[in-house]
Amino acid sequence: MSKLKLLLTGSLAAIVAMFFLVSNINAREAERVSLNQVQGIPQNASVNSEWAKYYPRQYSSWQKTKDSDDLEDMVGKKPQLAVLWAGYAFSKDYNAPRGHYYAVQDLTNSLRTANPKDAETGPMPTSCWTCKSPDVVRLIEEDGELNYFTGKWARYGGEVINSIGCKDCHDPKTAQLAMGRPYMDRGLASAGMNTFADSTHQEKRSLVCAQCHSEYYFKATDNNGKTAMVVTFPWKNGLTAEGMEEYYDEINFADWTHSISKTPMLKAQHPGFEMHLTGIHGQKGVSCADCHMPYTQEGAVKYSDHQIRSPLETMDRSCMNCHRESEEKLRGIVKQKFDRKEYLMEIAMDNISKAHLETARAMELGASDDELKEVRTHIRHGQWRWDYSIASHGSFFHAPEETLRLLASANEEGQQARIKLVKILAKYGDAEFIAPDFSTKENAQKLAGLDVEKLIQEKLEFKRTLEQEWIKHAKARGLYDAENQKNIDDKSSFYR
Ligand code: HEC
Ligand code: HEC
Ligand code: HEC
Ligand code: HEC
């Protein structure tokens, strides 16, 4: 081939490539702009399928959160949990999180919510629905926040029916990111942070998750003579484990009294947002959506993948735009972080479980509350730090150093309790005491004083009766999303 021909072919190829590149960029830019424009306003916006015709890609990727249906019985896998949470509903039943699609079903099936008979019976307050459904945003709009937080969980059984979806994170009128849970702005303000509206776009890409993936407690608040249980973020002293511990200690707060050791306990919920902020990605300004909702290219169209799940399943889109290592190498690093967390976590869980059981033995032998005061403070703080460090699951990756630091601190508190307990047990003549075996779910739940078979039978009765009435109510109210309810996976830790 002559030099001239070579040059000509080369230039032609370059021109063609340039043409495609430019048209591709134009198409993507046009799409990016149009995606952020209103394509229609969904009516009845807490029903997710109402959004489908306007935003088909976001909708169908959101629907795929259905694929994450594995149910992992954590109390079965880590029986220490039943001892650690003795006297608290989590000792009955606790599963690892699965897709957003299942949030309502999983809460309804949990033995924790038990078997209410009607709108007035407990045990749980309405607040338990708060991080499960776009119907909550609707109810807060319709009934007012304080009224929403008043009464028993069963009060809203027929009203909260659609699982985590569009209206949880978007304004139906503009499709922009939105936050319909006012308690979050109060939490941010108490910590001296910007409210949602004043935050940057990049911050909002995490804040929509923080509505639910944060530590909270129910603050008893007067509502015209009735008590509202208002979801509250304990952030006044900072978004750290120690800051929140101090906050709870200052107001003398306890989530429950431990049924074995009689310790006034704290339950960490899932401080995923707070832990993320302490990690390297959080500190570098990477948002939850950057990893969990990566941009996806479909032909010329670019959109956010709404199948929120483990980013390890989407590493090419979630990690590789920032990292140069191979996927395999990164995956290996993540696995190592997980194993290190497991190692320290197991030791902490064993130590603190034994501290509860040794305290019970000391009480049995006659030790007074006064003698056990320091022991119980160590247990309270140790268990809080253990729970805080791992309750949000992804923490081993989001903030590995902070996770390990808290687990070390939990172990130190657990050890301090046990050293003091040896002295007390020796004083009462049982220095050789060895805590009973809690290595199986059955043993551990027995130590927690639970009759699980009875709880299961009661739950099944609830599913045959009141739950059916809720479904009828939701249908009559036009809230029932037939498309997304059909074939919903109804499994639980106790039946499949
Ligand atoms: C309205 C509350 C709420 C919002 C908002 C929310 N989540 Fe969740 N998330 C939950 C609940 C509840 C579960 C557990 C569901 C279950 O197990 O049934 C969960 C589960 C998850 C899981 C586990 C999924 C799996 O397949 O195992 C991930 C990951 C997750 N959320 C990330 C996010 C991210 C990222 C955001 C923000 C873009 C977010 N969530 C926003 C409440 C929420
Ligand atoms: C847990 C929060 C969450 C839920 C649930 C959610 N979205 Fe989104 N959505 C986001 C985030 C975060 C973005 C990225 C926004 C940005 O950066 O501008 C987004 C982006 C969008 C966009 C803008 C274009 C794009 O793809 O980036 C549309 C439209 C949209 N979502 C529609 C929906 C619809 C429809 C549903 C329900 C089927 C839904 N979203 C559910 C958080 C959510
Ligand atoms: C928006 C860019 C961005 C994305 C997306 C991102 N990272 Fe990173 N990652 C960083 C930055 C920045 C650092 C800090 C180190 C540095 O500055 O080089 C980092 C650090 C790390 C480290 C080392 C720090 C540590 O904690 O030990 C690991 C491992 C890592 N990332 C894994 C991942 C994985 C896995 C994903 C996908 C799930 C991911 N990253 C997604 C930007 C990103
Ligand atoms: C740099 C990427 C990255 C960022 C940023 C990030 N995550 Fe994650 N997240 C991960 C990885 C990786 C895992 C571990 C997944 C696994 O073990 O399969 C994870 C795990 C989780 C889990 C546990 C899922 C499960 O089923 O156990 C939740 C929930 C979660 N993240 C929520 C969030 C929230 C909320 C934010 C923001 C506050 C956030 N993540 C920010 C990468 C990220």
Describe the structure.
- The chain has 23 helices and 6 strands.
- The protein is globular.
- Helix 16 packs antiparallel against helix 17, helix 16 runs parallel beside helix 19 and helix 17 packs antiparallel against helix 19.
- Strands 1-2 form a two-stranded antiparallel ribbon. It has a two-stranded antiparallel sheet with strand order 3-4. It has a two-stranded antiparallel ribbon with strand order 5-6.
- It has 496 residues and is mostly helical.
- The chain has a domain of 320 residues: Up-down Bundle (Butyryl-CoA Dehydrogenase, subunit A, domain 3).
- 51% of the residues lie in helices and 5% in strands.
- Strand 1 and strand 2 form a beta hairpin.
- About 1% of the residues have low confidence.
- The site of one heme C has 16 residues, from helix 13, helix 14, helix 15 and helix 16.
